[in-house]
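Need the bound structure for flavin-adenine dinucleotide, inputs here:
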Amino acid sequence: MRVAIIGGGVAGLAAAYELEKNGVPYTLFEASPRLGGVISSEIVNGAVLELGPDSFLTEKPQAAELCRELGLADQLVGSNDEARKTFIVVKNRLIAMPDGLMFLIPTKLIPTAMTSLFSWGTKIRMGLELLHPPRKTDGSDESVADLVCRHYGPEAVDRLADPLLSGIYGGDSSQLSAQTVLPKLVEMEQEYGSLTRGMLAGHRKMKAAMKKRANEVSAAVQPGSTSGSAAKPAPARTIFTTLKGGMKQLTEALTAKLNPTAIRLNTPVTSLEPISVGWLVKTGESEATTQQYDAVIIATQAWAAGKMLEKVDAELAADLTGVAYSSSVTVNLVYKDSEINLPDGFGFLVPASEGRAMLACTFVHRKFLGRTPPNQAVLRAFLGGMRGESLLAESDASLIETVRRELMDILHLTAIPITTRVTRWRRSMAQYSVGHNDRKARISDHVAKLKGLYLAGNAYDGIGISDCIRLGRKAASEISKL
Ligand SMILES: Cc1cc2nc3c(=O)[nH]c(=O)nc-3n(C[C@H](O)[C@H](O)[C@H](O)COP(=O)(O)OP(=O)(O)OC[C@H]3O[C@@H](n4cnc5c(N)ncnc54)[C@H](O)[C@@H]3O)c2cc1C
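Answer from helper R.:
Posting the output first, comments after.
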C-alpha cells in the first residue's frame, strides 16, 4: 500500500503522521516551499506573532490531544478568560458585548436591557422572542442572517451575528448556512420556538450534568472510597488553547515525526487519474511527472481539489470548486506597552455597517499571557473576508497605514509600532454557504464511488484546526485498515 497525500497544511500533516504511526508508506506533496499551510508563527524580540490562526477551540479536543501525543503537553496555554471581554465598534465607540450571550443568543435580562449595543426596539423584540412558537419547517436551509433576523431583528444581525461571524470565518452572515454553522440553534427553534428559551434549557441541562459529575468525583475522593483517592476535579477549561512558542510548534512537531524523504515541497499536483489498481498522480507544470499510488488523500483547499479532479468526475469537481472561500489579511503590530492605553478585554469586532477595513482586532498579549515580553503589547488586526477581497491587492505599507488610521479612530492609538507583519491568506477559509450540507452529501456520494480517494481539510465538516486534524487522521486510519 502506497499513499499520496496532497497538501501539507495541518490536515495533510495529521494524515501523514497517522500513516507514519501505522507504518504505511506515503508521499506528501506540497505546492509551496513550506509545510503548515495557514499555520505560521514568528517570534520577534520575544513576542509570539501569529500570522495565521492564533489558537484552537478547547471544546474540540483533537488539536490538544494531538499536541499531547507529540510531547507538547507542557507547551499548551489556555486563554486568559478572566479578562475576556469583547467590544463591538458602534460609530467609533467601543461597546462591550453584554453578559450572558451564548452562541449569539441573549440569555440574561438585565445586561441585555442595560446595554447600549441595541436600541429599545431591538431590546423589546429580544424580550418578545421568548414567545416564539416552535417552527414547522420543510428542512430547507437559510442564512444565519435570516435566522437571527427572524428572532431578534436586523440590528442583532448587524451588531452581533455579522461581526462575530466575519471575525471567525471572514464570512458574511447573509450567505453562511444556518444549518451548518449554527445547527444547535436550528434544532432549538424546532423544539422550543424561542432560541432564548432553548438556550436556557440547554444551559440548565448542562449545569445539572456538571453538578452530577462533580458529586460523583467528590464521592470518589471521600475517605474509604475504593475508586481511587487520586481522583481530582478537572481544572476549569479555558475557551481557547494555544502553544507557548506559537501555533507553528504543532506543525513543526508533526513534521519532525515524518520521514523527510517522503516530503516533496514545491511540488503542486496538477491532476489525478484513477486506474484499475489505484491512482496516477501527476505533478509539476512544466516537467510533469506521474507516479502511481494505491490511495490518495486530498488535503488541499476544495477549489484546488476540484481542479485536480476535473477529468475524473465533472460533477464532483463542480461541487468542490463551488465551495466559496474567503481571503484574509492579518496585520500584527507590536508596541511598547508603556506607549499605549487599551480598554480591558481581548479586543473588538467591527460591524460591516461601520464601513471599515478591519473586521476584528485582538489584544494578543491580553488573550494569552506569557507569550509577549512584559514591556510589549501585540495588536492583531484581521481584514478582508467575503466583502474585503480587494484589500489583498494593497501594499503592506498601505494596509499598515489603514489599520493604524482605524486604530486611531477607534482606540485613539497614535503610538508608532516597533514591529509590523502583514500576511495575506488567499482563498484559504472555506465558507459554508446556504445549502452546504446538501453539497457535502453530494461530495461524499461521489467520493465513495472513487475507490481509494479521500478528502480532508477545512471545506467539509468544520473549519477549525481540530476539525482538520480529525478529518486528516480519519482518512489515514481508514486507509491503514485496508
Ligand atoms: C487567518 C486565519 C485565521 C484562522 N484562525 C483560526 C483559529 O484561530 N483557530 C482555528 O481553529 N482555525 C482558524 N483558522 C482556520 C484553520 O486555520 C484552517 O481551517 C486550517 O488550518 C486549514 O488547514 P488545512 O490543512 O485544511 O488547509 P491549509 O492550511 O490551507 O493547507 C492546504 C495546503 O495545500 C496546499 N496545496 C494547495 N493546492 C495544492 C496542490 N495542487 N498540490 C499540492 N499542494 C497543494 C497549499 O499550499 C497548502 O499548504 C484560521 C484560518 C485563517 C486563514
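Comments: Confidence is low (pLDDT under 50) at residues 223-231. Residues 6-12, 29-32, 37-39, 52-56, 268-269, 299-301, 304, 328, 330, 425, 428-429, 457-458, 463-465, 468 surround flavin-adenine dinucleotide (CB under 6 Å).
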